[in-house]
């Protein structure tokens, strides 16, 4: 992967927003792969600034990486809510063109296949935004995920639930399962942009970029992608050779 070290989260947001703006200039109805969590927020903020200044993203389509299983859609921490509040509203996207996997218990067995079909019907993801877990996950593909995996239900690791407890009242409120695009799904995107900030991501970033290809560190799968860019701050880059 190409590694770009930036001075701040804000600079990372501006850089990636610029790439997305170029994508939309070339194809207004481009398909953006959306990550949640803290990491992509500087990108969404930079895009929102551009939208306020007149950038039109109304034809942009989107697919989120993942969703918790069993949270009501209207729960403030469901990724349906987060995508609506952090992405669709500020970027003035068409809500009908932005998809999040269906984590409701009813129909969960077929939700993965339906999501894969929707991505294929949209012509695939043009640019996939990724964060990285401290355990090396991308999406919620936890260690041990197959490089060929497609959208399916995965159990969150104890580490991931502890990392995400900050969004909930306590770790016990963090769902145990997620529905996530697979590593195979992610690798089909035409371009990958993985962002990581802070020292707590340094180990996972170094392992993903410079370590062996291994299902034990799912983000190492990005080494298989011909167009993967990693945008990190100095702290997240600190364990790279
Ligand atoms: C979120 C996702 C996860 C996060 C990762 C990092 O949609 O798929 O892989 O990107 O857990 O989370 P943050 O950005 O909160 O550190």
TrEMBL record:
One of its GO terms (molecular function) is glucosamine-6-phosphate deaminase activity. Gene3D superfamilies: 3.40.50.1360. It is an enzyme of class 3 (hydrolase). GO terms for cellular component: cytoplasm. It comes from the Bacteria. Allosterically activated by N-acetylglucosamine 6-phosphate (GlcNAc6P). The keyword Cytoplasm does not apply. Its EC number is 3.5.99.6. Pathway: Amino-sugar metabolism; N-acetylneuraminate degradation; D-fructose 6-phosphate from N-acetylneuraminate: step 5/5. The record marks 145, 152, 154-155 as: Part of the allosteric site. The active site is at 66 (proton acceptor), 135 (for ring-opening step), 137 (proton acceptor), 142 (for ring-opening step). InterPro entries: Glc/Gal-6P_isomerase, Glucosamine6P_isomerase, Glucosamine6P_isomerase_CS, NagB/RpiA_transferase-like. GO terms for biological process: carbohydrate metabolic process; glucosamine catabolic process; N-acetylglucosamine catabolic process; N-acetylneuraminate catabolic process. Residues 11-225 form the Glucosamine/galactosamine-6-phosphate isomerase domain. The keyword Hydrolase applies. Keywords: Allosteric enzyme, Carbohydrate metabolism, Hydrolase. SUPFAM superfamilies: NagB/RpiA/CoA transferase-like. PANTHER family: GLUCOSAMINE-6-PHOSPHATE ISOMERASE (PTHR11280). Catalyzes the reversible isomerization-deamination of glucosamine 6-phosphate (GlcN6P) to form fructose 6-phosphate (Fru6P) and ammonium ion. Belongs to the glucosamine/galactosamine-6-phosphate isomerase family. NagB subfamily. This is Glucosamine-6-phosphate deaminase. The lineage of its organism: Bacteria, Bacillati, Actinomycetota, Actinomycetes, Micrococcales. The gene is nagB.
